[in-house]
What does this fold into?
Amino acid sequence: MAKKIKTSITINASKERIWKILTDFENYPEWNSFIKSVSGDVKVGNKIRIKLQGMTFKPVVLTLNENTELKWLGHLWFKGLFDGEHKFKLTDNGNGTTNFEQSENFSGILVKFFSKSLERDTKNGFEQMNKELKLHAENTKQNNGNRSTTP
It folds into this structure.
């Protein structure tokens, strides 16, 4: 059994600015209510530690393309039971905005038992994080442009 959840949002900021926020894991608690923390050396092939509300898992980083894509694969207990391949993707729209896509492909024998919860709770979490990222990126952009250079 497999299930895919895909969400996206248009953000009025460059993909470089969004990538900087997205990969500044130390500051996630400031703006991200979905993913509480990401720790470890985020490099392809490495295991990292991700903490959500009430759940911590240790996926392996599959893809890390600066300003474009971050993807990891996690398992519940062991491979094939309940696996999730999570992806963040940034696409420059060519007009000063960026499309931010967050998706996850779930597979494994337990997916059918979690299908409704994934569609409801996980998708809502993705959409909430997308909105928070948009707000943070657009507010950061405005604040950076209004900073005084005098001490």
